[in-house]
Design brief:
There is one protein chain. The chain is 78% helix and 0% strand. By secondary structure, it is mainly α. The protein is elongated and about 60 Å long. The N and C termini lie far apart (39 Å).
Length: 83
Amino acid sequence: MVLHVYKVILPAFPPHEKYDLQSQVKRAAYSVPLNIVEGAGRRTEKDFAHFLDNALGSVQEMEYACFLEGFRISRRKQIFRNL
């Protein structure tokens, strides 16, 4: 998933988002597998479930960021069409 984010998703973002939304997507992408691995190393299922929940939150964060950027792109296209 992290490789997909780097190869496909991040290049689709505009350059001006490099230090804002793009950076946030990078952190969230790294966070998913890191949380799963950390949770798998814990001793109880409750702890593991907690880290899986954190990983899911990071996935949802990436999903929203991609939705937001897609909305921005379609909105800009709409504005330019109306000029």
